[in-house]
Amino acid sequence: MRLALLVSALAISCAAPPCVPAFAQVAEGPSKTFQGGDIFGLRTASDPQVRPDGGTIAYVRTTQDIMIDNGRPSIWLVDPQTGAQTPLVVDELANFAPRWSPDGTRLAYVVGGPGGAQLYVRWMAAGRSAKVATLEQAPNEIAWSPDGRTLVFTMLTLDEGKPLGAPLAKPENAKWADPIKLIDKVTYRADGAGYLKPGYRHLFAVSADGGQPRQLTFGRFDDGGPISFMPDGKSVLFASNHSPNWERDPQESEVYSASLADGALTQLTHRVGPDQAPAASPDGSKIAYTGFDDARHRGYENVRLYVMDRDGKNSRAITAGFDNSVGAPTWAADGRSLYVQYTEKGVTKVARVGLDGKMETLAGGLVPSDLDRPYAGGAFSVGKTGLVAFTVGDAASPADLAVLRGGKTQRLTHLNDDLFAGKQLAKVEAMPVVSSFDKKPIDAWIATPPNFDPSKKYPLILEIHGGPFSAYGPVFSTDVQQYAAAGYVVVYSNPRGSTSYGEAFANEIDRNYPSHDYDDLMSVVDTAVGKGFVDPGHLYVTGGSGGGALTAWIVGKTDRFKAAATQKPVINWTSEVLTTDGYNFMAAYWFGKMPWEDPQGYWARSPLSLVGNVKTPTLVVVGEDDHRTPPSEAEQYYDALALRGVPTALIRVPGASHHGLAERPSQSAAKARAILAWFERYK
């Protein structure tokens, strides 16, 4: 299918006309390399769920629908022995979050449609599904009771609070403006969700055969999952923060137990720090959970695995000696060990951890279902028989479904083989780097264009990850593939501050960001240039979020790049920490002082402080519904560059949040094309 990407996909401003980008009138036809239109053909696997007996795996397959310009999730079943697939729920609605009943005869899942998300159960033998209840708000974090009779989930309970002043009485049939909205919560908006509905998230229980949901927890608090039943079915475990100052302390949470009979709460953990993801052992004698002691003065802490007695006593860190974060704890059937997920040097893995702390890595190569940039991540599930299913992929393949069998990974799905048949993708290889600042080793990857000829000279794009506490890895990326298909060598890396290299490496940027991560990134470029096939006179730089901040920082420090594209950047830390959705976290943990307490410190770390040095033509990109690095950050930078006469343009992506900047395939493709068109203008 031919695809024309039009200017209407993006809103574009520029400092001086003309500014219509080169891609605006380009129609796309068949190509042997990866192009923007191919995003519509991509499929990904996510949320694998092993049936308790290990006989079947349910997973969510997301297909990009060109008619709605978005992904459409559906639920599929896979035979782990043969790889044979069967569609379970595939229709015009969104079907996701499959969860097996303890006996494997039923599957709970969520259906999203015009009337909102609803909870369904499917009777597998009969092949019939029924809505469990008509819910006022979307259900999350679904858990089955051990006897299969009850489902517990979290759901928002609306609470408008007390009005401030009495509204005027409207005459009958009068058409007045919408009433004023009162905000009195600390957390009142979130990226992706926008301005939040007033209320609190609580636990509810409902019969698995259908019925009226019963609220289990109450109060002006948010209770969250994942939810774990105790084996006797009498209570459930969850995480929450019920302290009086909970809204101003976003890192804090404790593990609670709630009685299924009357909702009586028991607080099981008591410390400063986030305690979350509780999981009861098979015999109910122990509870595993994750968290860390919050020193309240560092930007990053490793998330550790803990085990305590069922009453909360005798808590101990199982992975105290492991210098990386772990997550998604799942008990083995014998109760002697747990399965966890962790990322090491950009590669996500599944491991089994004994109660003595001994860790055995079982499988690697997990990848998330994100497509635009090569972030590390993934998901896994374990059946009672020990069958491990997980999402697997690499730099040339998005997320598929795989199982661990005989110590080896067996891929069960090949969702994109048809799309990639006959296509030449960029080749991505590891590229070790040594930082010029202190000789620290820096992991990096280099992507070379299709039909690469090492005897030729190629322009180079440096792509920088956000976070800043996150990591790239050898993972498929539509941006990298499109840049390489356009004839660029692409490099991306994990400079200091990246996760998956231990606490010390991540905290190299604590209270000091940006700083020597700049030197690491320049060393990545120098290493690529040193290979001989990169043209040092044609270098380009881009990145998103923290990578956008570093892009703006880089062009304020050096003129070696021909052009830049800063995406959803932080530009002025004072305005950023007071307008981001995470304003109750960012200033406290990343600076230690409020902007009015240390204005010079905030300014010294703001890319805006260097704008007077910028000569590099710089494109600025942001989603119009970004609540993490709001559009005002991007607009400040665009305005400053325009005032100085530096070549610039501003791209606003309609309806896009921070994490959803590339969620819509047409916008993802258009954004990449705009960046390439900008770079081509300054070749």
What can you tell me about this protein's structure?
The chain is mainly beta and 683 residues long. It is built from ten helices and 42 strands. Strands 2, 34, 35, 36, 37, 38, 39, 40, 41 and 42 form a ten-stranded mixed β-sheet that branches. Helix 6 crosses helix 7. The longest helix has 17 residues, at 665-681.
What keyword list fits this structure?
683 residues; ten-stranded mixed β-sheet; four-stranded antiparallel β-sheet; 10 helices; 14% helix
Topology:
Blueprint: E1 3-4, E2 11-14, E3 27-28, E4 43-50, E5 57-65, E6 70-78, E7 85-89, E8 94-100, E9 106-113, E10 116-123, E11 128-131, E12 140-144, E13 150-158, E14 189-190, E15 194-195, E16 199-207, E17 214-215, E18 223-229, E19 235-240, E20 254-259, E21 265-267, E22 275-280, E23 286-291, E24 304-309, E25 316-317, E26 326-331, E27 337-344, E28 347-354, E29 359-366, E30 380-382, E31 388-394, E32 397-405, E33 408-411, H1 417-420, E34 427-430, E35 433-434, E36 441-448, E37 458-464, H2 478-485, E38 489-494, H3 503-506, H4 517-529, E39 534-544, H5 546-557, E40 563-567, H6 573-579, H7 583-590, H8 599-604, E41 618-623, H9 631-644, E42 648-653, H10 665-681
Helix pairs in contact: 6-7
